[in-house]
Amino acid sequence: MTPAELETARKSAVLGNLPPPLQEKMLEGSQIQTADTGQTLFLQDEPADALFIVLDGWIKLYRIAANGTEAVVSVMTRGRSFGEAVALRGLSYPVAAEAITPSRLLRLDALRIRHHLQSDPVMATSMLAATFVHLQHLVEQIEGLKARSGVQRVAEFLLDLAPCTEGECSVALPYNKALIAGRLGMKPETLSRAFARLREHGVRIDAARAHIEDMDRLRQLTAEDPAKAWLR
């Protein structure tokens, strides 16, 4: 693991609340796992024998419904962790995980971590904090689906990816538009219409890159009452 990757792992939800000595203890026995685009890390309903921290790349978490439809639950990137809650309870993964770009992950053995948690309440509290972070993300995701228009959801997605906070900004779209649509709870054609609508707000989509004229203007769009569109 490179120094930069170690720093990424230390700042993750799993390790971020621990003092350095306990971080080292948690990292004992961890392994670097690489994944090519399209490679499966684990399948839905497999025993959860590990939890993961993304060091680089993008990972898709998804479920397959009884009718065969794929539902994208989340897309994880550098610094995000997943699999904690089920791995620490010895359950099965409720989702499948697949690399959607070449990726590097830190794999922590669930059995080893469970042993540490049983002997150290500080570690147990840290893990609870990590699961709370994921709960917050899910609540925010549900709020976005329920309380924001499709255009607002896409705008917020671009703001989250943007490397700048003000002025003009160019944003690389990290994965294909069909997956973006699934992540945002849309159909691909709805996403295309949302991209077209964003031109009115100074956003131009050019292949796999979004060009934003004014970050503040786009931020104002995400805060706007979705019902306002009906009054225009």
TrEMBL record:
<dbReference type="InterPro" id="IPR014710">
    <property type="entry name" value="RmlC-like_jellyroll"/>
</dbReference>
<feature type="domain" description="HTH crp-type">
    <location>
        <begin position="148"/>
        <end position="216"/>
    </location>
</feature>
<dbReference type="GO" id="GO:0005829">
    <property type="term" value="C:cytosol"/>
</dbReference>
<dbReference type="InterPro" id="IPR050397">
    <property type="entry name" value="Env_Response_Regulators"/>
</dbReference>
<protein>
    <submittedName>
        <fullName>cAMP-binding domain of CRP or a regulatory subunit of cAMP-dependent protein kinases</fullName>
    </submittedName>
</protein>
<keyword id="KW-0808">Transferase</keyword>
<dbReference type="InterPro" id="IPR036388">
    <property type="entry name" value="WH-like_DNA-bd_sf"/>
</dbReference>
<dbReference type="GO" id="GO:0003700">
    <property type="term" value="F:DNA-binding transcription factor activity"/>
</dbReference>
<dbReference type="Pfam" id="PF13545">
    <property type="entry name" value="HTH_Crp_2"/>
</dbReference>
<dbReference type="InterPro" id="IPR036390">
    <property type="entry name" value="WH_DNA-bd_sf"/>
</dbReference>
<dbReference type="InterPro" id="IPR000595">
    <property type="entry name" value="cNMP-bd_dom"/>
</dbReference>
<dbReference type="InterPro" id="IPR012318">
    <property type="entry name" value="HTH_CRP"/>
</dbReference>
<feature type="domain" description="Cyclic nucleotide-binding">
    <location>
        <begin position="14"/>
        <end position="117"/>
    </location>
</feature>
<keyword id="KW-0418">Kinase</keyword>
<keyword id="KW-0238">DNA-binding</keyword>
<keyword id="KW-0804">Transcription</keyword>
<dbReference type="InterPro" id="IPR018490">
    <property type="entry name" value="cNMP-bd_dom_sf"/>
</dbReference>
<dbReference type="GO" id="GO:0003677">
    <property type="term" value="F:DNA binding"/>
</dbReference>
<dbReference type="Pfam" id="PF00027">
    <property type="entry name" value="cNMP_binding"/>
</dbReference>
<keyword id="KW-0805">Transcription regulation</keyword>
<dbReference type="GO" id="GO:0016301">
    <property type="term" value="F:kinase activity"/>
</dbReference>
